[in-house]
Amino acid sequence: MCGIVGYVGQQPAQGVVIEGLRRLEYRGYDSAGVALVSDGAIAHDKRAGKLANLEKAIAEQPLPAATTGIGHTRWATHGAPNDPNAHPHLGRTGRVALVHNGIIENFAELRGELERAGHVMVSDTDTEVAAHLLELAVVAGRDLTTAMQEVSRRLEGAFTLVAVDAQDPSRVVAARRNSPLVVGIGEGEHFLGSDVAAFIEHTHEAMELGQDQVVTITADGVQVTDFDGTPAEGRRYHVDWDLSAAEKGGYDWFMRKEIYEQPRAVADSLLGRRTPEGLLQLDEMRLSDDELRDIDKIIVIAAGTSFYAGMVAKYAVEHWTRIPVEVELASEFRYRDPILTQRTLVVAISQSGETADTLQAIRHARVQRSKVLAICNTNGSTIPRESDGVIYTHAGPEIGVASTKGFLTQLVACYLLALYLAQVKGTRFGDEIAEIIDQLEQMPDHIQAVLDGDEQVYELARAHVDNTSVLFLGRHAGYPVALEGALKLKELAYLHAEGFAAGELKHGPIALVEDGVPVLCVVPPRGRDFLHDKMVSGIQEVRARGARTICLAEEGDDTITPYADALVRLPEVPVLLQPMVAVVPLQLFACELATQLGHDVDQPRNLAKSVTVE
Ligand code: M6R
Hints:
Layout: E1 3-8, H1 13-24, E2 31-38, E3 41-48, H2 51-60, E4 68-74, E5 89-90, E6 96-104, H3 107-116, H4 128-139, H5 144-154, E7 157-165, E8 168-177, E9 182-185, E10 190-193, E11 205-208, E12 213-217, E13 222-226, E14 231-232, E15 235-238, H6 254-260, H7 262-270, H8 289-293, E16 297-302, H9 304-321, E17 325-329, H10 330-333, E18 344-350, H11 356-367, E19 371-376, H12 382-385, E20 389-392, H13 405-425, H14 430-452, H15 454-463, E21 469-474, H16 478-493, E22 496-501, E23 518-522, H17 529-544, E24 548-554, E25 566-570, H18 578-596
Parallel strand pairs: 16-17, 16-18, 18-19, 19-20, 21-22, 21-23, 23-24, 24-25
Antiparallel strand pairs: 1-4, 1-10, 2-3, 2-4, 5-6, 6-7, 7-8, 8-12, 9-10, 9-11, 11-15, 12-13, 13-14
The structure holds 5-amino-5-deoxy-1-O-phosphono-D-mannitol.
């Protein structure tokens, strides 16, 4: 959840580290800090609040020149977000500085041990013990790499640690267990980052690390070992997006930029999926057709927005393949003793590839010998690496905390998976599958058409700034869209927002409806008459009780007009694909409403982009 940067090379480290932190600030923004190795000493500064506070402090009281440094932007777990709890933390004599992402579960025991030996802790964090232990090891004569291996073996929980030693400016050393860290490979310089955004302006060459590994970067090299010191290899890869993808490009928010990138993201995620013979191919599937034919149940596990993509996947997979699908919150999955067999395919959906709940869920599934397939947007992340196969989405970096293009591209991957299973199992004819892929390939144009109507949605958002409660209704594949619309509004506008399956209204939620309450209704396409008509009845029922209905309905659907206080038109698309267009106005609505309320859309309160602690 925190952002971590490390640098050693020829450039002024302060600038490289601060710039890296700026690109990682979306991961956590309670406080920020930097430590540099200069003239045999650690120079550091750290401040509560956003990175700007740290920058201001450094501008007023500059740190000395250095070419080795580390930095941190925090999402607090242990200890309030104040100056003392901000990272870096120093050892007892100030020789070692260390930053940390994750939770050290046995910190209380270690802290007790250190305090009994006379160490005084100056923060409430779990991190500080690691800084003290590391420094004890270097003072005892170990180099920083050996010291890090030694300390890592003593720690329990999830951690990325990155440290510098005042007496050895040639290296930055990191350890990784269940928490993200990638290496950036430059010429005469190397980088560490929680993700590649930290160093993308300096290099596109990256290295992914495995579990329980220690990495040492110097200006000239990278050395990887396990916690016992045994040499290990990291996987090198090329990052195929550039700096502009990590910048706002003229938009006020990353989120808004990412909403408008969706036609491109969807098109990119569909690229190269057909063989010259017209068959569907999934390059990194890694599960054989025989293994897939053997699957008799699918369990989708995910969190937040990715969970809603999983709900849509259930409709598509079951309809096209007749394989039963369960969709489960990753945080609940392993606590209910799920029934998993070798014939169960567990599909883990995660934009970041680092969500701790999802990661633990797939580990549980693999222990039960189920196959695991990841749907992920982040090359080099942990979840795809620990899965049997992966479908990468090609959304480019998603920086806004609220997921948008991540969601749409996850839907693409879910549809592709469903169609691939249909192809392998023979539950759909080849021409049917080809027709659906054709329809998918038209989606970028349809999404663009919705975006072209943005002004109407923005006006609706502006008209609703005084509302304290907003409801969302949907049915079938529109139900997860309603849930997603409500989540966007909650996390960005801090409003009471709830999504319901329209058929459930009469079983309770309709009691929430009172005069003037806005209800956003996702109306299914008319092709599915029974669904469509039931939804129209539901809309009439809430309207009769005073709701102000904002209906999202396809072009030409006039049946809805008498019951809609506002009508947002959607392109005509098949019902299973409708979530891809229906969610877009809801994203725009939440983004604009939050903007009007004066909230920080990219960094909403209490949230972090990547939830790497359970
Ligand atoms: O990276 P993941 O897809 O695993 O993240 C899952 C959720 O944390 C994420 O979708 C979250 O709900 C977003 N803030 C929603 O906008």
